[in-house]
Amino acid sequence: MLYLLAEYLREYVSGFNVFTYITMRAIMGALTALVISLVTGPIMIRRLSIKQIGQTVRLDGPVTHLPKSGTPTMGGVLILVAILVSTLLWADLKSAYVWIVIAVTAAFGLIGFIDDYKKLVLRDPAGMSARVKMFWQSLTAIAVAIILYLMADNPYETALLIPFLKGMAVPLGAFYMVLTYFVIVGTSNAVNLTDGLDGLAIMPTVLVGGALGIFGYATGNVIFSGYLGIPYIPGAGEMLVFCMSLAGAGLGFLWFNTYPAQVFMGDIGALALGAALGTVAVIVRQELVLAIMGGLFVIETLSVIIQVASFKLTGRRIFRMAPLHHHYELKGWAEPKVIVRFWIITVILVLVGLSSLKLR
CA 335, CA 337: separation in Å to the nearest integer? Predict the structure, then answer.
């Protein structure tokens, strides 16, 4: 919106030309989202507290979590508003990719909102049933997969790029839609599973989102993409603006979500942010790099799968509790120690993922 305005005004005042550069718009998007989060955060937390929309703590979980009961939840609304407003203000709305990632983020956010609303406002412990939730997630992901497949102009846009191997791309054909579905739905639920400690999920989301924005910038630039040996996808550069808006909104939320948390994001935030990361990764053709950089999300998800499979097959549990972060809490690690160490792991994985841009 402001990008189009800047394009018009630069004809009369040359100074407005600076706002047409994607890097400047990305910076402005991040700052705008950050300010929105910091300014509206206290207001939202106060309203959630007044309405008594608070966290329900599992009695079979770590005893250190019992004081968290009643902490305002559904703070993900704050994140989504900041992301969407900033993206609409600073991104080039002529790019179809911008509208796709906005639609996915909003749709998964709506699914999470309904689930949270049933649990926290209507006091229905079951919330939205897993089957219904998966149906709407799948419907959204399938629709996006079909749209992106039909938008593809060349084989590289539907190929699976293999990181660290120069020119290595596996043609997927129609199977591209299957991959897209699993990346979006899988990442959405993986982030949701990771969101179990104060700030644990949001900081890795910010780090991975920022890194994906760099991939988007390179992919959408014909010179950089040619130099780095990655496909050039017109319009994908706008993912930098979206990802930086996500990063700014996430950091603003972290101000209130850091230990001890004043607010939790709830399913509305976790499902939406995970789906957003998955969609951006698909658009910039970096699904495998997402698996590397988002390794924390992968490990947390695998811990749940392994725990359930082991208990059903042998009657024994591999971990003291799943997801994995609870296992370390029950081993005696303090919550801040678990959080920071998992953040450090994510920083390392993100750097490894970014290195794939050059190491081929």
Answer: 5
